[in-house]
């Protein structure tokens, strides 16, 4: 360092060799021993803290021919492994003065460190593993200035690590080869002496009785084999001879996984509730005497207790398990059709079993007879348990509503009445569907001014409430306001101060021509908006006045005997249509009082002959759909076809409208709900009201007759069913369609008169 130039940085390539100019390079030669009897020239140096083997014994390699690489590179990951043992004194074991413990000694050539590891032996009784961690170990005194080196290890030699002597008996193949190449002779392996403690411990292993025998039974294999396998039996318990007793119909389940039994009571006319737990799942004893004492079900039996203080007590476990009572439990062999089971004093008779149980017994036990046992008849004279009567609430006092008063009578703490939340979610507003039916009404009154007033009655499907609004005419003297707030309206002619809630108007009372009495005022429904009429027709199962099939069946029965005169009198001469007023007058005369105005409107809407051209036909809808697909860069018809094929389980090529709608929504087409509805409306419907999905795929394929792109429109507003002002439907009625639906032409054509209807259809084809 003294010859370094201070102007140059201390970097590789800028430093000088400190030996330049040095003339004295003499060494102090001293002869030493390499192993036993091998002399070599060594250097008298300080303890070999650093440096490889060639630094301590330079005479092994000639000067200039030895490897100049550092040891941590030259001997990287090269380890010498020796097998050794040491003796450990055992003073507390009689007949065994010491214990032989086998270890492995690892010598790391890269840095001369040593590690001693004892292989783990199962149930050895001592802590095993790393005895001496990896480190450099000094020689024992008086040579403790130096550290153990490679030449200190060989088969047959003894090494002392921290006052513990290890005898080397063997080495691995790499160690033997490495030492031989270094000129060190390696003797043959030495036999490890036997361990007297191990021989004493395991000589009479079978005759030694364990102090704490294992009481646990390994039932994991049985559980894994029979998991979820249950034997089902039907049984009965005849308790009709006792007071208030009846015939119990039961279901017995035997779980093969853990041999437990569960019994449930089935639905019966004798008062048993469905699903009533007759016996909780558990093992069923064959003979029941009394409740088991404390500790009788324990896995261990304690003979006595030694010691008086709580901290010095010792428990002695009985290895012979004396005094334990063996309890017999019902097993699968005890169950059969006709067998009687004692269920804690109740005699249960097994009557029949299911298919799995029959197959199980037939496979395992070879039983083939499974004739059911007849269940005894019920004794009609048996006194049944009287069902609890309903709670009778006090009459309504006039304060609040009936629901509020009833809730306050049930609980001391006032709570709000419980509403039908499921119905609220079902009929809540969804998009443009408000679930509110609006009707136009007139008031019936002795006052002439009230008869000219116009009202709108709104019926809310969410909670069956009615609200009345008045729409005032100009210069009438009345203002537009809320005539009756939204609430449930009671039916007329009921008692007011009763304990039971009164009946209210429901949706079945709302139809055109119905008469309602609201707050003492009489209203008659004269019309309804388009949404109400359309909702009733779509849900015709709830609204019989809007069910065209039911209405036409009733008309058909009335017209069947007079159909000839009815057609001859009302057949049009110039066209195939008939006016609403003319058909209504004839049908009302024939049907009588059983025919309402709403039913006539339903017929007129079903067979309407109004000339109306839709704003968006099939071609325009297809152009709008393909434009939307082009805007959003959607082109995945093959996957859409796979979705349709996956949904079509019967492979008929047709799906319902709901299924097609679900597939199109699941395929993530960039369409709004209104556009999807329009696409499915313009598709061709088959007789079973299904749609061919091949037609939908061709409809969405741009390669087939591509239409020109359409300018963007407001799909949610323009394609909504109520967005276009339509003319009033039903002013003109299609007479041919009406007669074709009646399907009474065969009765009319039995006569010899000319076929007027057929001629009319040929004159005015649809």
Outline of this structure?
With 766 residues, this protein is an alpha+beta fold. It has 23 helices and 26 strands. The chain has five domains: 29-201, PH-domain like (Roll), CATH 2.30.29; 220-293 and 301-364, PH-domain like (Roll); 419-538, PH-domain like (Roll), CATH 2.30.29; 547-611 and 731-760, Recoverin, domain 1 (Orthogonal Bundle), CATH 1.10.238; 618-718, EF-hand (Recoverin, domain 1, Orthogonal Bundle).
What would you say this structure looks like, in words?
By secondary structure, this protein is an alpha+beta fold. It folds into five domains: 29-201, Roll (PH-domain like); 220-293 and 301-364, PH-domain like (Roll); 419-538, PH-domain like (Roll); 547-611 and 731-760, Orthogonal Bundle (Recoverin, domain 1), CATH 1.10.238; 618-718, Recoverin, domain 1, CATH 1.10.238. Helix content is 24%, strand content 21%. It is built from 23 helices and 26 strands. A six-stranded antiparallel sheet has the order 6-5-4-3-8-7. Strands 12-11-10-9-16-15 form a six-stranded antiparallel sheet, with helices on one face. Helix 16 packs across helix 17 (657-666). The protein is elongated and about 145 Å long. The chain starts with 28 loop residues before the first strand and ends with a helix. Mean pLDDT is 81; it is low at 45-63 and 750-766.
């Amino acid at each position: 360092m003294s010859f370094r130039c201070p102007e140059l940085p201390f970097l590789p390539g800028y430093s000088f060799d400190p030996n330049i100019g040095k003339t004295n390079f003499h060494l102090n030669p001293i002869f030493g021993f390499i192993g036993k009897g091998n002399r070599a020239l060594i250097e008298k140096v300080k303890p070999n803290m650093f440096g490889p083997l060639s630094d301590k014994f330079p005479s092994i390699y000639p000067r200039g021919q030895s490897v100049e690489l550092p040891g941590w590179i030259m001997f990287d990951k090269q380890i010498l492994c020796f097998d050794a043992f040491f003796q450990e004194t055992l003073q507390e074991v009689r007949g065994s003065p010491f214990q032989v413990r086998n270890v492995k000694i690892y010598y790391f050539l890269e840095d001369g460190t040593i590690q001693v590891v004892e292989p783990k032996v199962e149930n050895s009784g001592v802590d095993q593993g790393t005895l001496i961690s990896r480190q450099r170990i000094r020689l024992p005194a008086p040579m403790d200035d130096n550290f153990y080196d490679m030449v200190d290890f060989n088969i047959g030699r003894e090494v002392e690590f921290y006052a513990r002597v290890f005898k080397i008996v063997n080495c691995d193949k790499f160690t033997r080869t490495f030492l031989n190449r270094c000129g060190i002779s390696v003797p043959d392996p030495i036999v490890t002496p036997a361990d007297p403690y191990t021989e004493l411990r395991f000589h009479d292993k079978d005759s030694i009785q364990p102090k704490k025998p294992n009481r646990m039974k390994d039932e994991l294999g049985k559980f894994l084999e029979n998991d979820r396998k249950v034997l089902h039996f039907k049984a009965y318990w005849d308790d009709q001879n006792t007071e208030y007793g009846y015939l119990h119909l039961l279901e017995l389940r035997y779980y093969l996984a853990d041999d437990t039994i569960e019994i449930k009571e089935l639905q019966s006319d004798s008062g048993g509730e469905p699903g009533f737990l007759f016996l909780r799942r558990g093992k069923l004893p064959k003979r029941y005497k009394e409740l088991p004492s404390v500790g009788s079900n324990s896995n261990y039996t304690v003979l006595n207790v030694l010691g008086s203080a709580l901290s010095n007590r010792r428990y002695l476990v009985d290895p012979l398990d004396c005094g334990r009572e063996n309890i017999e439990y019902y097993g699968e062999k005890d169950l059969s059709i006709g067998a009687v089971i004692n269920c804690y004093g109740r005699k249960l008779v097994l009557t029949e079993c299911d298919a799995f149980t029959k197959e199980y017994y037939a496979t395992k036990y070879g039983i083939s007879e499974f004739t059911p046992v007849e269940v005894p008849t019920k004794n009609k004279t048996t006194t049944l348990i009287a069902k609890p009567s309903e709670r009778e609430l006090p009459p309504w006092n006039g304060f609040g509503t009936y629901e509020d008063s009833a809730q306050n009578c049930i609980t001391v703490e006032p709570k709000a009445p419980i509403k039908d939340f499921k119905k609220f979610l079902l009929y809540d507003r969804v998009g443009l569907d408000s679930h509110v039916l609006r009707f136009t009404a007139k008031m019936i009154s002795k006052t002439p001014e009230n008869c000219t007033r116009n009202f709108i009655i709104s019926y809310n499907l969410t909670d069956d409430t009615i609200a009345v609004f008045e729409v005032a005419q100009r210069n009438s003297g009345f203002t537009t306001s809320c005539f009756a707030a939204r609430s449930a309206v009671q039916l007329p002619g009921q008692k007011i101060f009763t304990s039971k809630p009164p009946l209210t108007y429901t949706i079945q009372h709302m139809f055109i021509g119905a008469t309602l009495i609201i707050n003492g005022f009489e209203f008659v429904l004269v019309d309804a908006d388009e949404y109400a009429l359309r909702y009733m027709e779509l849900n015709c199962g709830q609204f019989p006045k809007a069910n065209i099939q039911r209405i036409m069946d009733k008309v058909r029965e009335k017209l069947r005997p007079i159909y000839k005169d009815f057609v001859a009198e009302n057949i049009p001469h110039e066209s195939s249509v008939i006016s609403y007023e003319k058909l209504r007058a004839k049908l009302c005369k024939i049907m009588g009082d059983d025919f309402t105005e709403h039913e006539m409107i339903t017929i007129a809407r079903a067979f309407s002959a109004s000339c109306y051209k839709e704003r968006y036909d099939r071609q325009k809808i297809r152009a709008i759909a393909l434009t939307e697909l082009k805007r959003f860069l959607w082109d995945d018809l093959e996957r859409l076809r796979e979705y349709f094929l996956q949904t079509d389980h019967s492979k008929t090529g047709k799906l319902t409208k709901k299924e097609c709608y679900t597939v199109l929504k699941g395929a993530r087409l960039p369409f709004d709900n209104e556009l999807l509805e329009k696409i499915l409306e313009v598709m061709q419907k088959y007789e079973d009201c299904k749609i061919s999905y091949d037609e939908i795929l061709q409809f969405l394929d741009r390669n087939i007759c591509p239409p020109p792109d359409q300018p963007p429109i407001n799909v949610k507003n323009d394609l909504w069913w109520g967005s276009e002002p339509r003319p009033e439907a039903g002013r003109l009625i299609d007479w041919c369609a009406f007669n074709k639906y009646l399907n009474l032409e065969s009765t009319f054509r039995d006569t010899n008169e000319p076929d007027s209807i057929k001629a009319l259809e040929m004159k005015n084809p649809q």
